[in-house]
Design a protein that fits this description.
It is built from 9 helices and 34 strands. β29 and β30 form a beta hairpin. α2 crosses α3. The chain starts with a strand and ends with a strand.
């Protein structure tokens, strides 16, 4: 199998990686001994957005972990070996969360593929999360999005399962697999590069250069990678080939990696071609100094005074930011709420017809909604797959704890429960250890008049005076207050870009960015008793509990 790695503007230095706001890489592994041969080759493509200094090697750490777990199952078939490795990987992610390493949640794109020879075909097993694209470029020029069924794969928070499904199948030789990060895919699609690559048949370095050369100026501006794999049942030895750098065209480095450990497997090794697209400071526009016209003494004094005001103002803002609680006080103007959102596919999913008290809240655990109330003994489970509602004899532990200790609200993150007490304390509950921890830092002032809680790695607390306070690692981070509103519930998760708030008195849902900026509102005459809300990871589908009815709609 011949593999081409196309890198566009990869940050090399630590400072560049932090400034670029994303790091990306691909990893290609082959068997190193006869026992591993039947498992074939392992390919991993990853991208991490907004990395912290401690996470700059996170992709490499994940890839080494997967490789070790995958090839340790050499006595199993490739599909089972990958499933077992993913189980271990889910445990790995869970341990990361226990150590409060949460930055990767919602920022990680990862694709894992295993390819192994099977007579005249290639056996493919793969999975992915995030926005990576996995395409099959057919020999006849067709393009198939084989990863589309995994587009909406959701992380299950309790117990934590980042990867829950894999796709398997056998594909013909002479086809090509392509894995693309989002920015590269979008640009390749806009420029018809994917179609042009598919028309080339078996890809070579020369053909790839030919397809990309007409749009080289545009490719200089993008950042990401593409991994192209020629599917062949024929393995060749590695060789090393370097293409000289050129400043007039894309800076391309071609390297073919040699795995010397498996000399016994030499006839079965992979020809691995690495094409590195990246552009150094030579491509940056140079800025030349210009002569400044002579300034009069009066104008110079005015300019200096203006600069002084800016510096003093900036210093005062800095001092204000040092206070424990800083609220970006603002008012959502009534005119903004004229932007009502049209509701698509609005439907009533279920209705509680019991004469007893009805649920007032619901949680999503796995593929089911669990409905409960502080005032009712009954708990209901609604399976999202078969659309069936059942009354539970014994509620899940999270709901039992909520009722027993009279917590106001609860949220799930990373397999742990976060309960909100009436006094403003936040309790982190570890189900596996059955242990409760006070989450707020002892020196952090508790929020007052609390109503509701949401967790996305940090914690959002809604208070009775319509303040939204954000806490991270137990400490207050930021907050904002909203006038002329009466919110009852807040919802978000690590996947969502927005905050969702219920305002029952005005029959509406208000959507804010996590900076406190108004995004939109959703009004409907049927929202006459809004109680609780859940939003899908892609923020296209919303479920609301309104009185005794559960509504579902698209936005």
């Amino acid at each position: 199998m011949e593999v081409f790695e196309l890198f566009f503007n990869p940050p090399s230095k630590k400072e560049d990686k932090l400034k670029s706001e994303k790091i990306f890489d691909s990893f290609c592994y082959e068997p190193t001994n006869p026992y591993e041969e039947k498992l074939g080759n392992l390919y991993i493509v990853g991208q991490l957005s907004h990395p912290l200094p401690k996470n700059l090697r996170f992709l490499e750490k994940i890839s080494e972990f997967i490789k070790e777990k995958y090839y340790s199952n050499y006595f199993k078939d490739p599909e089972t070996a990958l499933k077992e490795a993913l189980k271990e990987l889910n445990s790995f992610f869970e341990e990361e969360l226990k150590r409060d390493h949460t930055q990767w949640m919602g920022n990680l794109d990862l694709a894992i593929l295993s390819l192994s020879p099977h007579q005249k075909e290639i056996e493919l097993n793969f999975t992915k999360i995030g926005k990576l694209k996995i395409l099959l470029l057919k020999e006849d020029g067709q393009i198939i999005d084989i990863g589309s069924k995994l587009e909406h794969q959701e992380i299950e928070p309790y117990p934590l399962r980042v990867f829950s499904n894999i796709l398997s199948g056998k594909i013909p030789q002479k086809d090509t697999l392509g894995i693309f990060t989002k920015e590269v895919f979008d640009n390749f699609q806009n420029e018809n590069l994917i179609l042009n690559l598919a028309k080339q048949g078996k890809l070579t370095e020369k053909k790839i250069k030919k397809v990309l050369k007409p749009v080289e100026s545009k490719l200089k501006k993008i950042s990401g990678l593409a991994l192209l794999i020629n599917l062949e049942n024929k393995f060749q030895t590695h060789s090393v080939l370097n293409v000289k750098e050129s400043f007039s065209f894309l800076k391309m480095v071609l390297s073919k990696i040699s795995f010397l450990k498996g000399l016994i497997l030499k006839p079965f090794s992979i020809l691995f071609s690495k094409i590195n697209y990246f552009f150094s400071n030579f491509f940056k526009e140079r800025v030349f100094s210009k002569t400044i016209p002579f300034l009069s003494k009066r104008n110079l004094i005015l300019i200096l005074a203006f600069v002084s005001i800016l510096v003093v103002g900036r210093f005062l803002i800095f001092l204000q930011g040092k206070n424990e609680k800083v609220f970006l006080k603002g008012e959502i103007q009534e005119s903004l709420f004229e932007k009502n959102q049209n509701l698509k596919d609005f439907s009533e999913i279920l209705e509680f017809k019991s004469k007893d008290c009805s649920p007032t809240n619901f949680l999503k655990i796995g593929n089911s909604f669990y409905f409960y109330s502080h005032f009712c003994e009954k708990t209901y489970k609604f399976d999202l797959k078969d659309q069936k509602l059942n009354t539970l004899k014994k509620p899940p532990k999270i709901i039992s704890l909520l009722k027993k200790k009279e917590f106001l609200d609860v949220a799930i993150f990373g397999g742990n429960f976060y309960f909100l007490e009436k006094e403003g304390q936040i309790i982190k509950y570890l189900p596996q250890k059955e242990k409760e921890i006070k989450w707020l830092n002892p020196f952090t002032k508790k929020p007052k008049g609390v109503k509701s809680i949401a967790v996305d790695g940090s914690i959002w607390v809604l208070t009775k005076d319509n303040k939204i306070e954000n806490y991270y690692l137990g400490k207050f981070k930021k907050g904002f207050s909203l006038k002329n509103e009466n919110f009852s519930q807040i919802f978000t998760s690590f996947f969502l870009k927005n905050l969702y708030l219920l305002n029952p008195s005005q029959n509406k849902i208000v959507i804010l960015t996590k900076k406190g900026e108004f995004s939109r509102e959703i009004k409907n005459q049927k929202f006459d008793n809004l109680l609780d809300i859940f939003v899908s990871n892609d923020e296209k589908t919303i479920w609301v509990l309104n009185g005794k009815k559960l509504y579902k709609f698209s936005i």
